[in-house]
Specification:
By secondary structure, this protein is an alpha/beta fold. It is built from four helices and five strands. Strand 2, helix 2 and strand 3 form a beta-alpha-beta unit.
């Protein structure tokens, strides 16, 4: 199952809720304001790092660029819209709103 997170972890509990339901191997994609979670050095970096031990973690590059987010947590892969479509085609999607 592909988990998408579109809310900032600084203003929503979507990120924490997702972690509770995440199964090993499930990809996680951060989009829109959710991309703030993957910036290195913030209070969510260790949780994102922990996810990476058993789950692929992606961030949508256009959303990172639009928000000026750089310096991602090691292991987070950036993808473009084509990559987003590929993930959606390959997995059932659970959007954490």
């Amino acid at each position: 199952m592909l988990h998408t997170i579109n809310k900032s972890p600084f203003s929503s509990d979507s990120f924490d809720t997702c972690i509770r339901f995440l199964q090993p191997g499930d990809p996680v994609l951060f989009i829109e304001d959710g991309v703030y979670a993957v910036q290195s050095g913030n209070r969510f970096s260790s949780a994102v790092g922990g996810m990476l031990h058993s789950n692929p973690v992606y961030a949508l590059k256009p959303d990172l660029d639009a928000r000026g987010v750089s310096g991602l947590t090691d292991g987070v892969e950036t993808i473009d819209y084509d990559g987003f479509v590929d993930l959606v085609e390959a997995h059932q999607v659970n959007s954490w709103l």
